[in-house]
Automatic annotation (TrEMBL):
It comes from Hymenobacter tibetensis. InterPro entries: Amidohydrolase, Aminobenzoyl-glu_utiliz_pB, Bact_exopeptidase_dim_dom, Peptidase_M20, Peptidase_M20/M20A_hydrolases, Peptidase_M20_dimer. Keywords: Hydrolase, Signal. Residues 215-305 form the Peptidase M20 dimerisation domain. This is Amidohydrolase. Residues 1-23 form the signal peptide.
Length: 483
């Protein structure tokens, strides 16, 4: 990929009492974009309310009943035809408006993470009686995507754009691979391009090399017995889990260094004096290349089989998720970058700056200056360490995304600090940057056949002869994976 020089950094202005007012360079050459961003900004109070309501719901993967229903109803109220429960997933949906080509898709996520309950404060304070929290900002993700979809619908309705807009409600991104089932069901078959975004701590076109991922729960069954009076009669399922983990940890020396393997023991017995007859361990295997993930995952399975053999137990495993690496479409990313520069970033009010400094002081490491959220980062390709089911979408349709600064600069994803930011205007102000940028990029896609042609050409070249096949096989959606 070619790299460009650093782009001009654009500053926002302070948040006013009616919501974040962002200083934008007028796009005199495209009145549609200017009007669209103005309309989105005027609806900020409504979108802020929706995002914070989903933050309150904090529903984990495949259980996002209220969150999905709220987004669906918002779209229906605006005239979209909404098909719910698609791909055998109760909380998945596709909202459609318009007809004919081009067909542009926008992805919307809304699942929370377990174990990240947190109030919207700069001190660690879990919400009493609640386990989950939006540590990846999907309450903002889903709302901004719906906002963009609604504005594009209005332009189609007014006959200022021709084509079809589709908003995809995609559950369980966090380990549940919701989009994979939607891709497998053919829901992106007629789409010409897809736009998405993700909350973060800076503003930039998303040019990250995300990792392919396979995940599974390994379940061992043994024989229970009194651990002191008759240990010889027992066969410990927990011993099998520990044996498996030991073998996998030794395997790390003999696999490609880019590999990432993580696990948690989700069940390991109930009492020390009872030999556990059941134990479970949940594994993720990641690598930049999908084919290497398959091979390494098979070795993990063999370690599990060996552990069962050595401990006199039995083993079965359930594939929970599997995602492709993310194909980067530079043609679309450069178009998006231009729009992001047009929108610019946001600045914090004095109160928000104080909140930000407290968040940064809690992180325990050097972090960027708070002004980083007001800038637009340069266009560059980066190595990525995470995974996303957007990868599967990118293998069937040209896909482009951005990161918008919804967290105090330096805040890591999946942290209580991120949850706190996502429940404040620090988060919702950044959400508006994403909504405007996606809308402007989609306008380009609706109005520039040449941009679509070039994006399709790059996409076909990158995919080559590969025929898409989901890494999770033909299993049904893992609707209970968070149980």
């Amino acid at each position: 990929m070619k790299h460009t020089a650093t782009y001009l950094l654009l500053l926002g202005i302070l948040c006013l009492s009616s919501g974040p007012v962002q200083k934008e360079k007028p796009d005199r050459s495209n009145p549609l974009k200017a009007q669209a961003t103005k309309n989105i900004q005027s609806a900020y109070p409504e979108y802020r309310k929706i995002a914070l309501q989903i933050w309150e719901y904090a529903e984990v993967g495949y259980k996002e009943t209220q969150s999905s229903a709220l987004l669906q109803q918002t779209l229906r109220d605006q005239g979209f035809a909404v098909e719910a429960g698609v791909a055998d997933i109760p909380t998945a949906f596709v909202a459609t408006y318009g007809s004919g080509k081009p067909v542009i898709g926008i992805l919307a996520e809304f699942d929370a993470l377990p174990g990240l309950s947190q109030q919207a404060t700069a001190e660690k304070k879990p919400v009493a009686g609640k386990d989950a929290g939006h540590g990846c900002g999907h309450n903002l993700f889903g709302t901004a995507s719906v906002a963009a979809g609604i504005e594009l619908k209005k332009l189609i309705e007014a006959r200022k754009l021709k084509g079809t807009i589709k908003v995809y409600g995609t559950p369980a991104e966090e380990g549940g691979s919701g989009k994979v089932y939607m891709v497998r069901a053919g829901l992106f078959r007629e789409v010409d391009a897809v736009v998405h975004w993700h909350p973060g701590s800076e503003n930039r076109a998303m040019m990250n090399n995300y990792l392919a991922n396979s995940s599974a729960k390994f379940r061992f069954r043994g024989v229970s017995a009194h651990a002191a009076m008759a240990p010889e009669r027992g066969r410990s399922a927990l011993d099998a889990v520990e044996a498996m983990n030991t073998m996998v940890n030794m395997m790390r020396e003999h696999i490609p260094q880019e590999t990432r393997i993580h696990y948690v023991i989700t069940s390991g017995g109930k009492a020390p004096n009872v030999v556990p007859d059941y134990a479970e361990v949940y594994y993720y295997v990641r690598h930049p290349k999908k084919d290497d993930v398959k091979e390494i995952f098979e070795r993990v399975v063999k370690a599990a089989q060996g552990a069962a053999l050595g401990t006199g137990t039995t083993m079965e495993y359930e594939v929970i998720g599997g995602t492709h690496d993310l194909l980067l479409n530079e043609t679309l990313a450069r178009a998006l970058q231009r729009n992001l520069e047009q929108v610019g970033g946001v600045s914090y009010s004095a109160e928000e700056s104080e909140f930000g400094k407290k968040i940064q002081s809690s992180l325990g490491f050097t972090v960027p200056a708070l002004t980083a959220a007001a800038t637009v980062g340069k266009f560059e390709t980066r190595e990525g360490g995470g995974s996303t089911d957007v990868g599967d979408v990118s293998y069937v349709v040209p896909t482009v995304g951005l990161e918008a600064a919804t967290w105090v600069p330096g805040t890591p994803a999946h942290s209580w600090q991120a949850v706190a930011c996502d429940g404040t205007e620090v988060g919702t102000k950044g959400m508006m940057v994403a909504a405007k940028t996606m809308t402007m990029t989609a306008i380009d896609l609706f109005t520039s056949p040449e941009l679509l042609r070039q994006a399709q050409q790059e996409f076909k070249q990158d995919v080559g002869t590969y025929i898409y096949k989901p890494l999770l096989g033909d299993r049904k959606p893992a609707l209970t994976y968070r149980d």
